[in-house]
Amino acid sequence: MASKLLMPNPSVNHVAYSGSMVPRSHSFGQVCLPKKSAETTTSTSQSLVASFVTPTMPTKLDKTSSTSTSSSLAHMWREVQGCNNWEGLVEPLHPFLRQEIVRYGEFVTACYQAFDLNPNSKRYLTCKYGKKNLFREVGMGNSGYEVTKYIYATADVNVPIQNEPSCRRWIGYVAVSSDDAARRLGRRDIVITFRGTVTNPEWIANLMSSLTPARLDPNNPRPDVQVESGFLSLYTSNESDDKFGLGSCREQLLSEVSRLLNRYKGEKLSISLAGHSMGSSLALLLAYDIAELGLNWLGQNLDIPVTVFSFGGPRVGNSGFKERCEELGVKVLRIVNVNDPITKLPGVFLNENFRVLGGRYELPWSCSCYAHVGVEIVLDFFNMQNPSCVHDLGSYISLLKCPKRGSEVQEDEENFFSRASESILSRAQKINMEPLKNAASNVVNLVQSQRTSEFLIDDNILGLMSSLALYILL
What we know:
Subcellular location: Plastid, Chloroplast
Protein name: Fungal lipase-type domain-containing protein
Helix content: 25-40%
CATH class of the largest domain: Alpha Beta
Largest sheet: 8 strands, mixed
CATH superfamily of the largest domain: Alpha/Beta hydrolase fold, catalytic domain
Number of helices: 14
Keywords: Chloroplast, Hydrolase, Lipid degradation, Lipid metabolism, Plastid, Transit peptide
Organism: Dovyalis caffra
CATH architecture of the largest domain: 3-Layer(aba) Sandwich
Domain Fungal lipase-type: 191-348
Mean pLDDT: 75
Radius of gyration: 22 Å
Shape: globular
């Protein structure tokens, strides 16, 4: 595996704010939700860019050498959860933040390991294990968390391919830290994790790239806050023939979050959401939903931090959605691979980079532009033997644990393009497609030249070129 450390686009602004809310209540299913006032506090946007570097360099938030890792994390957990938008923690990447990113990534990995894809199994499309045994079965018995609820989602789409049942599927779980873990972490942590796309209906839902109003707050629909319709469908759809009364993914999550917040009322709490690919979209929708409904509001200008750790996540909504998340104080840390095409979707062309002309004039279609939310940590890696690993969660976590630098990066990258060129030419010759052979060869050569040339084309175009070369190899 090769890796390179890159700086993200400095034009992307990543800021979050907390909104002031007035306690009134309305009901949503089994959840009692406070109603917020329309007033929110805002502030001037600021840019934050991050490079991925070794974590050994000290920062202003480092504690003395005599302080243990756990106790130091307990003192600075709010900074690690993004209360200051991770300022001073991402450049260079602070060891505590790296540790927490990896930890939440492993919680998401557990979703993949426990998901049963055996059609002959009684637990097909659900979790292989019971809630009490999940972490032990996936090798995380010492995580210090207890699973409290499994979450199921239904894709409200018809799939005309393959004979796959249209039913709810296990999508993730809710867990809460134990008393011992809470002392080490400095607070009681409620973690909610989501796996990425696996089944056919989920793939179809991912392709529904039209924007639609989220309308998650019944007291204020906010038509300008729009999200991708497929993700919203997975989050809000009920199964037509629900024999178990589980409700939609949204109803399950809001009910459980409300129950846990009430159970641990009076303690220091955090709500941490983690997901990979499609799962990161659901995590962001839930984070926005919790904040929009005011579930995390404690009164007296106090709120429970809501933080999303997104791995290889796509864009979720438009600029109105991004701005509203920032106003509500939703914190999002996006870990992305520059070679991962999923992170460039949807909105390959209509995105946050094409809303303003000349830095001053907002274009008429700006409300229809997708926009990423949050602070971005950019990685650069691909697997030599399997280019599809550019989106693999295991590759993300491996690089976070053991980053490569310097000459290793250059040597691996040169080997990759050499092997890619040979593989493409070989496959094209076998199927006797001379045009494909020439086109694929040109793509590989052009991508390689753009990585070393002083002339830099737009990141989106370069990403598409890279993706095309990679997918030809599959």
